[in-house]
Each structure stands twice: as structure tokens, then as C-alpha cells.
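G., the chain you wanted modeled:
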Amino acid sequence: MNRRNNLKAIAAAAVSAAIPASGTSHTELKGIQLHVDLNVDPAKDSLLRSNFTKTFKPAMMKQKGYMDVKLLKFNSVKKAPGPVNSNYRLVISFQTEQQRLDWVASADHQKAWPTIESCLRGDMMAATLYDLAL
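Predicted structure as C-alpha cells:
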């Protein structure tokens, strides 16, 4: 695993998406959501779920601006294209992108993220940042 490259990719996606669309001010936004597609080793499926429930989510819930976090397991593609090389999606919601970045920089994240990362196959993760518009 190349954790540094994964974190850089997530941060780069967040920075490039942090600028609101024209005509949208930050005061109009209702928060942010980061979608991270994960390629989880099927043999570590139950470990991922346990680590998410016991370590990752409780650590995140303590963070300023935390709104929600969900772990989604891929079911099927209803209309192509679907996710590539991923069988799980982590959906992270904070009030602001800066608060999410503060979470990533926190000691809690440094302890919690490796429990998720240890269940992944390869270095690739896709990360997409959204503004909550409504």
C-alpha cells in the first residue's frame, strides 16, 4: 500500500473540487461529501466491517463538523458506467471541506485510517468530492 499517494490523491481531488460552481456561494452550501471507492480484498470483508464499526466511525464522529459516514457495499450496476475496481464506497460528510481536511490531519485519522487501508487490494482508490446543494 502506498498510503502517502492515496492521501495525496484524496487531497488533490478535494482541493480541485473545493471551489464552488459559478453562482454558488459557500454560504448556500449545506456541507460536503467525499465518496471514496475502495478495492477491498474479499478475504478481509468482515475485518473491514469490524474496523469501520469499532474504530473508524467512532473516531470520525468526534471530529468538529462531522455529519455522517457510511460504508456502502457494491451490489450491481443499473446503468453503465459503474465503479471501476471497487467493491465498497466510503461516503464521508462534513459541514466544510476544511473540517474534513482537519480530520485527515488529525491523530485520530492517523490511527483509524490504517485499519481500513489494511483491508484494501492495491494502491488505487477513486475519490470524488461533492458539495451538498440541497
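Residues 45-61 form the longest helix (17 residues).

Shout if anything looks off.
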